[in-house]
Specification:
Layout: H1 10-21, H2 25-37, E1 44-48, H3 53-64, E2 68-72, H4 81-89, E3 93-94, H5 102-113, E4 119-122, H6 126-131, E5 144-147, H7 150-161, E6 169-171, H8 176-199, E7 207-211, H9 215-226, E8 230-234, H10 238-246, E9 250-251, H11 254-257, E10 263-266, H12 276-281, E11 287-290, H13 300-305, E12 307-314, E13 317-322, E14 327-331, H14 337-340, H15 347-366, E15 375-377, H16 380-393, H17 403-410
Parallel strand pairs: 1-2, 1-4, 2-3, 4-5, 5-6, 6-15, 7-8, 7-10, 8-9, 10-11, 11-14
Antiparallel strand pairs: 12-13, 13-14
Helix pairs in contact: 1-3, 1-4, 2-3, 2-15, 3-15, 8-9, 8-15, 15-16
The structure holds nicotinamide-adenine-dinucleotide and S-adenosyl-L-homocysteine (SAH).
Length: 413
């Protein structure tokens, strides 16, 4: 059973899925293995993750491995209706539509949990939250789940520390083959993609203020610098701030950066990074975007409150006319600009992130009944397996230690 916008869009979505498949060789290998072994036979998998082509390929691989898949998005604006239709046409259970309101978004999450899943893929923690509250009666079959992103993992750790995590979860985000590539190079490229897609403006020679110098922020700073931007970083962590300074960026408070920026991008996972007093100081025409978790990094309420006119300027660009005549431009309603206004990370990146997801789900099944209600890291052998397959796929070979070298490295004195 499915609920999608328009099933006749399926052929367009199918083309997108077939395109990304050609660039996801690691997932392809895992998929053919699953096809033979059927590790998920008789199991139901609930997924809440950005519903676009690469995610669809992951869902199909799980289906090929025997799973009954129930899928929705993890953000109201990132669902691509043609991709959702293509999955529904294949018989997967899809509950998703681009641009859903808060109520429908939640109804879709509840709809995928209605099957009482055995396994979860969560991105941001919305499924986990429902399974500990309103949908607590849907956990009877649950073996465990996997969390995709930084903020979702923070929420899981807070829950575990409070003694309120009721099933095992795997922290996919902190696997080497995830954050080092997805958060850094994936976000670095796709955030620029989202900004260029929407604004069609020049980056070279512009001042770009980047809030947060974590994995995502440093990826974006690196790529913006490469495109000729003058990059300013704001941080709250002194170590990250030193790192940004030594990487060659100007580091200052948002209060000082606000009047200087042409573009502002938040990637912190925190709230109220850009607030009223910052809007008051910004240049006419400044562009504001978020590529962190929720739409709370840029305080939209305070932006609205000081605007005399709010108007749609282009697809995914809303103008906020200030009392003094300046107009500030908010992209994608302050939601993840790389997914709401572009296609998210490239296929080659999601190849690794989703290979980790697929193998971690298989690991959960293999360890059913032996796991505690806590957060597990992705097993090191899975991380290494994914790295080795990817390395081969990109055509690199590396040296291996000789017996003498191993002995040398392990020598005590
Ligand atoms: P991270 O923890 O590595 O980095 C976050 C950084 O923000 C830290 O250095 C922190 O000190 C800094 N920070 C926190 N509050 C701040 C504030 N008020 N002002 C300035 N800096 C502040 O996390 P990450 O992996 O870089 O992820 C950042 C966010 O992006 C998370 O919410 C994550 O879920 C999300 N994310 C988005 C994408 C995407 O596709 N757009 C991909 C991965 C992660
Ligand atoms: N629920 C949050 C989601 C955080 S998004 C929200 O409100 O929007 C951050 C995650 O999106 C990253 O960890 C990354 O792995 C994932 N992502 C990035 N590009 C993607 C893509 N093309 N397809 C699916 N997921 C993607």
């Amino acid at each position: 059973m499915s609920s999608v916008l328009d099933i006749t869009l399926a052929p367009f979505g199918r083309k997108k899925i077939e395109w990304v498949k050609s660039y996801m060789p690691v997932l392809e290998i895992i998929g053919s293995d699953f096809c033979k072994k059927k590790p998920f036979e008789g199991l139901k998998v609930a997924m809440s993750i950005h519903l676009e082509a690469k995610t669809a390929y992951l869902a199909e691989i799980l289906r090929d491995g025997g799973a009954e898949v129930y899928i929705t998005g993890c953000n109201p604006l990132s669902t691509q209706d043609d991709v959702a239709a293509a999955l529904a046409a294949e018989g997967l259970n899809v509950f998703a539509r681009h641009g859903v309101g808060e109520d429908e978004y939640k109804e879709h999450l509840k709809a995928v949990l209605d099957c009482s899943p055995h396994l979860l893929i969560d991105d941001g923690g919305d499924l986990v939250q429902l399974l500990h509250g309103e949908c607590a009666n849907k956990t009877s079959n649950l073996i465990g789940g996997c969390e995709e992103t930084t903020t979702g993992v923070h929420r899981l750790f807070a829950r575990m520390r409070a003694g309120l995590l009721h099933f095992p979860m795997v922290d996919v985000n902190n696997a080497d083959c995830k954050y080092l590539f997805d958060n850094r190079y994936g976000t670095g490229q796709s955030t620029i993609d989202g900004i260029m897609n929407t604004t069609n403006l020049m980056i070279a020679g512009k001042t770009v203020v980047i809030a947060g110098y974590g994995w995502c922020g440093r990826g974006l700073a690196m790529r913006m610098k490469g495109m000729g931007a003058l990059v300013i970083v704001t941080e709250i962590d002194p170590v990250k701030a030193i790192e940004a300074a030594m990487d060659g960026f100007r580091v200052m408070k948002m209060d000082d950066a606000a009047p200087l920026g042409d573009f502002f991008v938040t990637l912190t996972g925190c709230c109220d990074v850009i607030v009223g007093r910052h809007f008051d100081m910004m240049k006419d025409g400044a562009v504001l975007a978020n590529s962190g978790h929720f739409d709370v990094e840029i305080n939209k309420r305070e932006l609205e409150a000081r605007s005399v006119k709010i108007f749609d300027r282009r697809n995914n660009i809303r103008g906020y006319r200030q009392k003094d005549g300046r107009t500030l431009n908010l992209l994608a309603d302050g939601r993840l600009v790389n997914l709401a206004a572009a296609n998210g990370h490239p296929a080659e990146i999601m190849d690794m992130s989703f290979a980790l997801q697929a193998k971690s789900l298989e690991w959960l099944v293999q360890n059913k009944g032996r796991l505690e209600n806590r957060i597990y890291p992705v097993p090191a052998e899975i991380d290494r397996y994914v790295a080795e397959l990817k390395l081969k796929a990109i055509g690199c070979s590396i040296d291996s230690l000789t017996v003498q070298q191993k002995e040398y490295l392990e020598k005590v004195d």
